[in-house]
Each structure stands twice: as C-alpha cells, then as structure tokens.
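Appendix B. Raw example, untouched.
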Amino acid sequence: MKLQDYIQNKPILDTERLLLRPLQYDDIDDLKEWLGDKSLYQYWGKRPGKSDLNPELLFQKKE
C-alpha cells in the first residue's frame, strides 16, 4: 500500500483500551473541552491557534 492510500483512507486502529480513528464532526465538543485547556499548550511551545479554539473550523472545506 502506498503512502497516498493511507492519506486518503486513514486506517482505524482498535484495541481493548484504545481507538484511533480520523476526527469526526461529532468530536467537536470533546475537542473544545481539551483544546480549551490552556495548560495543554505549556509543553507544546506554542499558543492555541484559531482552529484549536474553534475546532469546527477543522471540518470546513478549504477553498
């Protein structure tokens, strides 16, 4: 499988304790809760960006 295949069709990894999958629109409320916590950025070396504070922007199509 080529890298481009993974970009287009991201795999879902599901174990007993963990589920990794692409973000979904229904995740917005959880993202707002987590990304709104300023202490999260302490070790990232950056301040929250526009899409961090408004995760619904992640789901808007870019023109």
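End of appendix B.
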